[in-house]
Specification:
mainly beta, 0% helix, single chain, 50% strand, 123 residues, seven-stranded mixed sheet
Length: 123
């Protein structure tokens, strides 16, 4: 069993940076690949990126490549999403998720989810 709690969201201006954190509880956290998703109002949940359990490999959706970076600290059970050069179209509720397969871009195939944190980017 893994429980996830996101934090770090907020209101920023275009071009700013923001760092989201996902704190995980559960002894088996290091076994899971971690994904980040986002959902804007009226839109489906969108895959943002994922990192495998070892922390060595990452994948990102094209729209955030070169701007967003996922990292994880298995000792502290924390996964982070560093978001740079933010754009208004990045505005959404951001979720972290844990799953056993990597790479995995399908939300329904993740086993555990956090409650989400709002990111708003003004122009």
């Amino acid at each position: 069993q893994v429980q996830l709690v996101e934090s770090g969201g907020g209101l920023v201006q275009a071009g700013d940076s923001l760092r989201l954190s996902c704190a995980a509880s559960g002894r088996t956290f290091s076994r899971y690949a971690m994904g980040w998703f986002r959902q804007a109002p009226g839109k489906e949940r969108e895959f943002v990126g994922a990192m495998r359990w070892s922390g060595g490999s990452t994948v990102y959706v094209d729209s955030v490549k070169g701007r967003f970076i996922i990292s994880r600290d298995n000792d502290k059970n924390i996964v982070s999403l560093q978001m740079n050069s933010l754009k208004p179209e990045d505005t959404a509720v951001y979720y972290c998720a844990a799953g056993l397969s990597f790479p995995q871009t399908v939300a329904s195939l993740y086993d555990y989810w956090g409650q989400g944190t709002q990111v708003t980017v003004s122009s």
